[in-house]
Structure formats: structure tokens, C-alpha cells
Amino acid sequence: MDISIIIPLYNEEESLPELYTWIDRVMHEHQYDYEIIFINDGSTDHSWDVIEQLHQQAPHVKGIKFRCNYGKSPALFSGFEKAKGNVVITMDADLQDSPEEIPELYDMIVNQGYDLVSGWKRKRHDSTLSKNLPSKIYNATARKITGLKLHDMNCGLKAYRNEVIKNIEVYGEMHRYIPYLAKVAGFTKIGEKVVSHQARKFGKSKFGINRFVNGYLDLFSLWFLARFGKRPMHFFGFWGSVMFLLGFIAVLAVGFMKWHALITHTHAPLITSTPYFYLSLTMMIVGTQLFLAGFVGELISRNSIERNHYNIEKEI
Hints:
The protein is of the alpha/beta class. The chain folds into two domains: 3-228, Spore Coat Polysaccharide Biosynthesis Protein SpsA, Chain A, CATH 3.90.550.10; 233-302. 49% of the residues lie in helices and 12% in strands. The chain has helices at residues 16-29, 47-57, 72-82, 102-110, 128-146, 162-165, 178-184, 209-228, 233-263, 275-302, and strands at 3-9, 34-40, 61-65, 87-90, 116-120, 158-161, 190-194. It has a seven-stranded mixed sheet with strand order 3-2-1-4-6-5-7, with helices on both faces. Helix 5 (128-146) runs parallel beside helix 8 (209-228) and helix 9 packs antiparallel against helix 10 (275-302). The chain is elongated, with a radius of gyration of 26 Å. The model has no long low-confidence stretch (mean pLDDT 86).
């Protein structure tokens, strides 16, 4: 099979018939062997009824129905497991992603050798204050931390080699960072393509300010796991040792000043009356706790079934 198209959705019953017709026309024009996988993420409207009708008309239309709204990452994960196409395309169901972009995305994967191609909506039809501006800030931060020079990492329109989606795990709200997950898994040929962005025709946007905040927390989590996930002692042990040593040196300094005052018969306050003594002890205690956290992390990592899981590209 040439292409699997994965479409997560939540309350998009009005968009689905038009989206399917659009995709079907493009696929037939280019004579692709394809499947469409709709993931109904707990919709409360008649989206699933529409998917069932489309499946009856065209068996290559498949569907997954969640009992409740889990989010986009679980929806993509379920679609990735089911996908059989050599190239996998993800897109949103709100008609803002154009199926006309699929042939060129397919060509970039098959003929130009990319592992993953992310869309870039250079010209957007969103409100600048509510979505466009936060998106620019978020993407600038993501480029700095991940090292991926993508302008729109969270674009729903992406293309992947099938091997990529079978070797990454999308969970929580990590769909925003699929290119980074692919990079960490060893798929480094990641490209970008400028794609058209349509104005929303039906329904309303699911974007909220909480996604902007959560995005930064998820980005830090991914960065930390990528660098220290299998060696937590390198982070916690290092900073714990630094804090303990600084606190210990500070305690020695406070003690030396008290000793110097005693032998020179000069007035000096009690050691326990100065805040520096307590700050020093606090640093030593926190440093010890960080070190122990790294030690416990190493024990957990050592007993993890994933400790020796590596992505092997070839074997002879």
C-alpha cells in the first residue's frame, strides 16, 4: 500500500464528507493505493455515524472510536499502530489542511529520501493574538532546544516513512514534538514543506491557552528524557554534588570566621545566629537529596525493561 492517511477528529461531522471527497479525488488523480483511518476521539456529535457511512461506501475508509476524549496523541498512536502504508500522512479533519499537498509530501519521502516532512503554514488564517503569536513564540523556543530548524513543529499536516511511526511512542500531549521524537529515535533526515492553510469552514477551534503552557512543560520533559533518561545520575548526581560541596565550603567558611574571632579575641556572633549557616546546611541537604534522587533513578533505570532498547537500522 502506498499511503495511509491518519485523521484524528473531535466533533467534525460537517467536515468529514467534504474532506473524504477531496482526499479521494486527489488519490485517484495520482493512482495511489491508499487507506484513510479516522480516529474519533470521543466526539459528542454524529461524527462516528458519518465515518460508518463512509466505510460502507468505501472499504478503504477505516475508523477507530474512543469511548471518551483522550486527546490527539492517543489518537495518533492508535492510528500509527493500524497504518499499513509505506508513507503515512497525518492531517486535521477541519478542512484547514489541504489534501492537494499529499502528492508532493509523498514524493519527498519516497524519492527525496526524507524520514519525516513537516508542513509549514507560512500564511495562517488564525487570530494573531489568540493563536498565531503564541505559535511563533513556541516554535522559536522549540527550535532552540531541539536543534530542529522547523518553523511550525506542531503542524498537523506531516508525512512519515512507515518505519518512523513504528519506532516512536506518542503519548500524553507529545504530538507537538513528533519531529523531535523521531530525531531522538535516530531518524535525522527531517524536512519541511510550505503548505497552504485554509480558513476554518465548520465548527470552532480546539486551541486553548492551556495547550501553550503545557507545550513548554512537555518540551522540557522530552529534552530531559532524551539527554538523561537512561543516565539520571549524570544530572542529579552532578548538581547534587555541586550543591553539597558549595554548602560544605560555606559551612567551613562560617566555622573559620568563628575560630578566627576566638583566637583574636574579637567579638563574633553565634554561628547559629547567622543566616549563612542555615543556607549552607540547606544546600548540603538539598545536594544530598539530589544525589540520592539520581541514585534511585539509576536503580529504576537499571531494572527497566527498556534499558537496552535500541533502534537497529540494519543487520546482516
